[in-house]
Amino acid sequence: MAQLRIADLYKGQQVDLTTSLALSAARLSVEFHLPMANRFILVTALSYEAVFWTQDKHLRDIPGVKFIAKK
Fold it and tell me: What is the pTM of this model?
């Protein structure tokens, strides 16, 4: 099972933090008061038109975020 999860990691794509992404992340931070890691992950997902799934209740009302409540 662990080998399958490790293999999943290699399906991803590494994305450089560009000036454009950093500025967009700063705007999200001001608008939604997000912690640094959340804003960089979110802005990267949005820029690639990826679905951003989370269980973090702080992100649930942000456009483009799919929220699933923890049970």
Answer: 0.73
Return d(Cα 61, Cα 67) in angstroms, integer: 8
Coil/strand/helix, residue 54:
strand
Task: Enumerate the β-bridge partners of residue 65.
Answer: 52
Cβ atoms of residues 40 and 26 within 8 Å: no
The structure tokens 């990267």 sit at: 44
pLDDT at 59 over 80: yes
Judge whether residue 2 has pLDDT over 80.
Answer: no
Q: Write out the H or E segment, with its range, that includes residue 31.
A: helix 19-32
The structural domains of the chain, with segments of one domain joined by +, span 17-67
d(CA 37, CA 59): 12
